Amino acid sequence: MSSSPEFQFVPPPEAPVFKPTWEEFQDALGYINKIRPIAEQSGICKIIPPPDWQPPFAVDVDNFKFTPRIQRLNELEAHTRIKLNFLDQIAKFWELQGSSLKIPVVERKALDLYSLHRHVWMEGGNDCVTKERKWNKIATRMGFPSNKNLGTLLKAHYERILHPFDIFNKGKGIISTYEKYEVKKEEDTECCDKDYKPHKIPSRMAGKIPESEKNGRRSRRHPDVGDSKTDSQVGFGSDDELAKYICLNCGRGDAEDQMLLCDGCDDSYHIFCLVPPLADIPKGDWRCPKCVAVEVSKPVEAFGFEQAQKEYTLQSFGEMADKFKQDYFNMPVHLIPTEMAEREFWRIVSSIDEDVTVEYGADLHTMDHGSGFPTKNSKNLLPADQEYAVSSWNLNNLPVLEGSVLGHINCDISGMKVPWMYVGMCFSTFCWHNEDHWSYSINYLHWGEPKTWYGVPGGQAELFETSMKEAAPELFQAQPDLLHQLVTIMNPNILMKTGGVPIVRTDQHAGEFVITFPRSYHAGFNQGYNFAEAVNFAPPDWLAIGRECVLHYSNLKRYCVFSHDELVCKMASTPDELDLTVAAATYQDMLRMVDLEKKLRRSLLHWGVTSAEREAFELLPDDERQCDVCKTTCFLSAVTCSCTQDRLVCLRHYKMLCECAPENHTLRYRYTLDELPPLLQRLKVRAESFDHWAVKVKEALEAKPDDKLELSELRELVEEAEAQRFPESELLQTLVQAVTEADKCATVAAHLATKKVRTRTRGSGEAKSRLTLEELRLFHEQIESLACLIREGEAVKELLTRVTTFQEEAISLLSQEMPDSEAIAKMVDTGCSLDIDLPELPRLKHKLQQVEWLEEVEETLDDSGSLTVECVRKLLDSGISLPPHPKIEKAMAKLQQLLTNMETWEEKASQALNAKPGINVSEGEELVKQAEEVPAHLPSVAALKDAVKRAREWNNKVTTLQSGETTPLLETIEGLVTRGRPIPLHLEPLADLEETVALAHAWLEKTARTFLKKNSHLSLLEVLVPRTDIGVVSGKRKRVKREEMSAQQQQAQLLDINVEDTANPATVVKAFKDCEERELGAMRALRAHNRNKRDGELPQEGATFCICHKAPQPNMLTCSLCLDLFHTGCVPSSHRSKVKLSNEGRFLCPSCERSRRPRLETILSLLVALQKLPVRLPEGEALQCLTERGMSWQDRARQLMKTDELTAALGKLSVFSQKLIEAQAKQHKPVSPQTHDDEKMEVDESTNDDSLLSEDGEKEKEGRGEAEVKNDTDKENNKKTEEGSWEHAYSSNKGSKEKKSEMDKVRWSRLVASVMENHDGPLITLTSGTRSQVQDLLVEGELLEVNLDETTHLWRVLQAANHPPAMLEDTLLSLNSTGNNNDENKTKKAAPKKRKSQGEGMEDTQPKSPHKSPLKKSKILKVSSGPTDGKPTKGMIKKKQALTKNMEKKKKDGITANKEGPRKKNMAGVKKKKVHSSNLHSDDDDDDSDEACAAEKCQHPTGQNVDWVQCDGCEGWFHYICVGLKAGDVLEDEDYMCLACTTKLPAPKPGELTEEESVDILLSLATSLPPKESEEQK
Question: Model pTM?
Fold first, then answer.
């Protein structure tokens, strides 16, 4: 790319750009008509569619092929083409003379021969310039420096090159004295002349029309050019043969070797006679001066574009175009700014030296290649493309829309009705032109780089044409219709500067439309590779200017594309199908056409033409009905002559057809003059509706006040215009404005006239949105001036009257100092309902606020009970915003003082309530007394007052309880603690009461561990109280729902007494005795019943046994107490093992053995601890009764055993046992009971618990080492293994065990026979009375839940009296091993299970609750209450002041009770228990029960019976359903581990003996009580 620094281009102003909305974009013609008043002032405009409007590109890219046109840019510009034509003529002139043209170089630039020739002739020619010595002036005007004296050099170049050409142009004769002319060869020191290569524009571009365009509309822009007739010869016509060889200049025939013959006319010339003379005979053809003059003087042929030889596809053309632009600018295509490309374009076209050639794919028919827009006939039309196929902006639809005139032309005019497509590249241009018939055009750029446009307003078209002709007269002389050929371009700066032509520019980007308006000249070029599509269209407003265009074409003798008159008549023939706007415009145009036709036919008639014939011109081809003079296409009429039947003229040129007389001429007409008015009338009828409508509108708008129409009637006129599609006019706009204004006034009037009181927004609306009184008056005047009547006008008038009245009343009310609030409020409501900006309304509102606030303050202060700090603060906050007033200031000061006092006392009361520790009750009473002087409601003071009241009441209850004669119940003490804890004051007795409750719960925990079995379903009270529901005699008793009742209620239900009677200890003892008798009687009846089922003479049919109530089987176990039979598989292992553990085969069923049956020594230690508690416990009373019963039974048993008969029996058994042992020793087969037991038995669980340790057991435990404990544990595990294989009736070891048992029996029988002669009978004999006493006493002892040695002794005696020695192996061997067994038992007691020892040492550090008692499942312990006015029995607490003394003693010792006390469960120290069925429907404990479940996602089961299980690892309690268990999955004596504990068990924590355990051990040293003492207790 080369650029000249001197070249400057100033871009013209930008054309208007429009961006329609979606609504406006729906109607293409409507929107174009809307913007026409603005856009047509510029000639062109750009329209940017909405962003979402993106039509698809529908061209078949693969099959799209075209041949572009070649454009040489410097030949397009008018001035450049003139220069090139001139140089071509000079070059041709010298070429014909056998010389080549060389352009001289002056001042390092090629000499502009055209400018030099022009300036010389402007000064009068060569002779004049030489004579007047103006060559230096010429040099200065051409831009050469004046100080170098270049005039002489320019004169020499002119005379050498241009002057001979001037001579030929003037047609002068040949100068005879050529000798005078000498060519002086001047030496140019600067540079040599440049050879000139002719462009040969006429020969290369002689108006060639592409074959594809010969039938197109633009082919008619080019007039038929026949072959130019050339003169055959130019000579003197001499027939003399010799004359051919005579020099025509000198007349001599000598020097034949230097004689030249013209190749055109055969004239002869000496080479030295020519001007200028030739040095040598030229090679090739040579023309004489006359032939040269003839050739040079030929007219320049029309300029046109040349078709390229190569066919392109879109892809190949795009690659070529992008490469050209990138190479030309030497930078990427997308980085080249439009300003640079624009400036470079105009530099190229203005330079002769820049020979840049581009190609342009212009005027490509959519009928041949397809449109870029989708159409209804497009292949593979997608549903999403349907809207674009029918869009009014689709260029295939726009020309034929209902409102477009071109739609009524039947034939498809390529380029006007059918779009053309344009494929451009950088610098490809479209030259200055306007559209055919001065129609509208629209261009859409589908894709690619921008297209730059330049446009001239249609009103300035004549100025543009004049400026073009003045700037390039030579071109227009050769081609008068040059602007119609689209082959000439001129720099806009030249036109704007020299001719004053207004020009605008715009850059059309992809997806944008450019519209040109009628007669608007436009030109432009492409910035790069792009694809555009264009078409013409003609709205109704074009008809008028279209008729002017036909007349203009006639004057220029230019062909028409179609007949304008034919189009108008066709539309007039079908007026009902026309749009009303089109019909109105057609009517006006046809009216002009008919008037002109009448005048022309009248003129023709006056000339003398009388012959006429009808002719259907629409059936003739256009070239057969064109005026021979003006080339106009005739339709209404034409004139022919008999002399020339193939020629016709229009009526304006009838005299120019031929020289024949008028009578020989014939009028050819399409319609008679009588036929035209009916066509016009039909159009008029169609358009009259608009006229009638316009009359009614004018009358309505100009009506007097009394004759005004209603608003609805005006709306009907607007609706009629829309329905009839009347054209846009000032009248319609005025009507729409009148209706719009009336609608607005009606809306505002309706809003003002509303009678709704806007109480919800009163005072909150902005005054700006309301009318003032003055505006209301003006609004009323505006309503009166409307063009129609509105019904709301009367309401506005009424409103104005109400406003005036309101102002008068408001002024009167404001003049009062403090008027009534109701009157002000009523007035404010009235003012707000008016919805008018009234100056009195804010003042009334302020006055109302003041009055209402003062009234509110007065009412609030009067009601001191509801006066709070918040109320006072709210009043103060609202008072601050009020307008100032003396009364308000006084009330504000009073409220502020009151607020200060209230906040002060509130803070004091709050501090007193939150003090740690709390203040005394007396201090609280003093604060309350002082705070009550403030006349307000203080929440903190009220709370403090309530706390003082509750503290006084609590202290009174504690004092009454301490001063009472009876010991209080635990439940009563717990109730006091529960009520005392929330009181925020310091209560001195509270700590002692909490400690007492904690000690009581600790005792209950320890007692429960002592008695209750693992996972027992019985509560401690149920175990301690005698059973009254044994067997079938007493019947079934309703199960006690322990979770739903207190300990007192349980006690009352178990003893069958009223709850009120539990308060009397004597009643409780009596009820206990009654239950004992009932229990004993029921058991005896049950024993008789079970004995009758098994041993009776008439056994009952279908009798069932065991807990499963099924038929008997072999080898069943017999309960020693109830005498019922039990299957070995139905009885838990712990009960089966006791058959052997007791060393005498005793077995108690699960129903008879309900507890662990601790020894009496352990129970006595519990009673000692109970004596220290200053509270009553139902469990304690039951334990006292049980102990008294046990001790009484022990006394009776000892007295019986001291009788002579039993003493002798026991002695005999002891001697016989000793003999057996000695006999065993002699046989070297010791039969040690210990060894025997180790092989078969497991430690009895009832004596294998650390809580049941006797005195001997504790000592044995202390003396054992860790190794021995470990050894005992291993033995225990081995015993469990043996037991598991022994207890199952169907075990695999059963055969071997039975075989071993038979061998033991044989060995034992031999041993007994060796000691005793008669070994088949009982060893001892008892009398029937003694036997009966022993049996009765043994039954009563087995009912006791206490472990007594006397029970064992009596059992042995009875067994020896009932069975022979052969059946009493265990009994006899155990007699003399009692001491060993005791030691053995002590050792076993000291070695409990490992699992149970993990909690050892921590059992007594904190209170522990057994399961199935209120202590375990409830966080807040409950103690049954009852009257305490009864006398305490023996064994119960006798000191009335025990509670008070215990508190005082602990206070002195510094012992403080745990405030949490029994509220919290210590899961690490709680003994493991499992529950199979638990009733959890206690209202008090329901929530606590749910919280006790340790499952991560507790399901909170509900119902009467909810099963629980306790983990032996973490000791957490779980609902069965929460851990996936079902009823019966876990037995009472089975271990259970939760999921979290299956991998790791908690480490054992060694413990220490507490003070209470130490006391228990000391008390247990006494193994028995003396009989005398028992009698005293009895």
Answer: 0.46
